[in-house]
Design goal:
Helix content is 28%, strand content 34%. By secondary structure, the protein is α+β, with helices and mostly antiparallel strands. Mean pLDDT is 78; it is low at 7-25.
């Protein structure tokens, strides 16, 4: 029989996962938004449609999955992409057409903790972030 402190530890661990956002990636609904090919690499960009949350008027947060592949590689299944790719929690400011990465699962696993404020980036025309904006900002 487990002790009460052991059971409480498990409960607090699960609560920590939920509040940190890590469980949002599980059970995701990944939508491919960009399949770009260059001479140096192929890239696939996905948005988790279930994770899109509007937290302020015109500002959204959501998970993206980025997969970089050698040129000419067959597009992976979503299960393979999740294993190979990188997930980031993105904040998108639709009215100002800018974005920033709020959280990176890869950086978190590697113990990276930025000590500087998270920088905003302008959304460039014809970029993958412009496509993300079209999917996220225009869905109402």
């Amino acid at each position: 029989m487990k002790s009460l402190s052991g059971k409480l530890g498990v409960v607090f661990f699960i609560i920590g996962l939920i509040t940190s956002g890590n469980l949002e990636v599980w059970g995701a609904d990944w939508k491919l938004i960009e399949d770009s090919k260059t001479s140096s690499s192929d890239s696939n960009y996905y948005i988790d449609m279930k994770s899109i949350k509007e937290f302020l008027e015109g500002k959204f947060r959501f998970w993206i999955l980025t997969v970089f592949l050698p040129p000419g590689t067959t597009k992976p299944t979503i299960e393979e992409a999740i294993k190979q790719g990188r997930t980031d929690y993105i904040e998108l400011d639709c009215p100002k057409k800018r974005y920033r990465s709020v959280k990176s699962e890869k950086e978190e696993r590697e113990g990276f903790n930025p000590i500087h404020p998270i920088r905003w980036y302008n959304i460039e025309p014809n970029s993958v972030y412009e496509k993300m904006g079209e999917v996220v900002c225009d869905r109402k």
